[in-house]
Amino acid sequence: MKILLLADTRKNELLVNFCIAYSPIFRRHDLASMENTARLLRSSTGLDVVGLSSDYTGGFDQLASRAMFNEIDAVVYLRDPMLAYYDSPNPLLKACDINSIPYATNLATAEVLTLAVDRGDLDWRELLK
Predict the structure, then answer these.
(1) How many CA atoms lie within 13 A of 28 on its CB side?
(2) Which letter does DSSP use for residue 123 in this model?
(3) Domain layout of the chain by residue ranges
(4) What dotted CATH number matches 2-128?
(5) DSSP 103
(6) Which parts of the chain have pLDDT scores under 70?
(7) What distance lies between CA 78 and its chain's CA centroid?
(8) For 47-73, how does the pLDDT look when each residue is reduced to its tens digit (9 = 90+)?
(9) Model-level pTM?
(10) Which helix H or strand E contains 49, and what residues bound it?
């Protein structure tokens, strides 16, 4: 499965700790993130995470395009509700909703989604490719 791992700046440490805890699961999948987050995850967790464009809006537009073409199977995006742009439209999350791509935006749903990936609950996504 292709899994995106993202976090708003204040949630980066939480994402790192989450990835350390679930690294045995994540090692079996293709992982991607924004370049700076990917670099942080690689150095902190040892996971092989592909880095994508680090420009905020361009990066999310690029990820949304991948979601529209079903090149993404799941998204863990730990969001910070205290940010001014929290309620602004997010092209990635909209593309996930359109294409039935499951995403988690907090630690609780991230854990549920990761365990579902591990159990094979999302294997139906392979049929879309």
Answers:
(1) 9
(2) G
(3) 2-128
(4) 3.40.50.1380
(5) E
(6) 54-58, 129
(7) 8
(8) 999 988 766 556 778 889 999 998 999
(9) 0.91
(10) strand 49-52
